[in-house]
Structure formats: C-alpha cells, structure tokens
Amino acid sequence: MLIKVYKEWSDQNNGRIEILAPTGKMTVMNKFKPGASEDKIKEFSELPPDYISFLQLCNGASLFEDPEYGGESLLYSAQDVIHYNEASDNKIVVANILDDRILIDLERWRSQDQDYLLLCESLNPVEHARRFHCNFKTWLDRFLISQGEKFWYWKTERSFE
After folding, report:
1. Which of 38, 109, 150, 161 could form a disulfide with 116 if both were Cys (CB 3.0 to 4.6 A apart)?
2. Do residues 73 and 97 make contact, with C-beta atoms less than 8 angstroms apart?
3. Which distant-in-sequence residues (6+ apart) come within 8 Å of 83 by Cβ?
C-alpha cells in the first residue's frame, strides 16, 4: 500500500511534509496512530483485507493538517469505527474528509464487489450515500497522490476535438 511509504516518509520528518497546494508550497502535518492489536483486528475480520491492512499499519490517522489550524482529514481507528457506526450494520464509516464521509458497503463487499466504497457528501444521511467506484486501497492511494484534495469532485469528462 502507498500509505506505508507515505507514513515512513512522514515519520522521518516528525509528521511534517511539504506539498504543492493551489496556493504554492505548503507544510502539512500527518499524525498516525500505532497499528491495531491482533485482538482488535480479529473483531474486524468481516471487513475487506485492504482496510484491515490499513488498521494493522496505523490504527487511524489525521492527514494533511495545517500546522497552525489543524485539519479535517480523518481516517478512523478501529475504536472510532465501532463508536461512529453503532446504527448501521451494512454501511461502515471509515473516514471523514472535510465533511464528506467515506463508507464501506458491507453488502457489496460480501457479494464480492471490489468497488465497495460509498461517498456520503456533507451532512447528508447515510441513506443518501452513493457509489464511489473503488475500494479502500484505491481511494486512499488517490487521496495521497492528490495531496489531500477531494479528487472525487474533479471533472473527468474528456473531449478530443
């Protein structure tokens, strides 16, 4: 997973890295929690292996924070997943990115659909979540490559004239 390389790079600099933002170069902070224990991982055996791998590497993280003002890109720990998902058995919130929630659709995962992630925009109820057309690893890799930007809103329609 790209997150492993990103975490190592970030850890070498005490969580501080420099990125290229729309306003120019910017220093951001990353905070990674230690990996989840094997006992905690066993509680999540029904979740996709790419998400389990993330929890083993880091049991939650805050990415691309402004050093002065903080940030709102939170990848939930195993404890957060339990805390924030008591109401739903089939849709599990695993991240909150500037009010957008990223969810694992367990029904899709159980039916072997590899594109099991959902996006729930802003403060909409989970029932309004829509397909994200990727899995957790793909989403996280793209989020890291886009340096914390909400790439899911980028226009992708192509026109060749």
Report:
1. 109
2. yes
3. none
| Angstrom distance (rounded) from CA 54 to CA 41 | 11
Instruction: Report d(CA 58, CA 75) in Å as an integer.
Output: 10
Q: Which residues contact 8 (CB under 8 A, 6 or more apart)?
A: none
Output 9-18 pairs: Cβ under 8 A, ≥24 positions apart.
16/67
CATH superfamily of 2-147: SMI1/KNR4-like (3.40.1580.10)
Q: How many residues does the chain have?
A: 161
Burial class (CB within 10 angstroms; exposed 0-12, middle 13-18, buried 19+) of 95: buried
DSSP 160: -
pLDDT per residue over 40-85, tens digit each? 888 888 899 999 999 999 999 999 999 888 889 999 999 998 888 7
Give pTM, 2 decimals.
0.91
Domain ranges of the chain: 2-147
CA-CA distance, 77 to 158, in Å (whole number)? 38
What does 15-55 look like in DSSP terms, one character per residue?
Answer: TEEEEEETTEEEEEEEEEPPPPPHHHHHTTTTS-HHHHHHH
Rounded-to-integer distance, Cα 58 and Cα 34, Å: 5
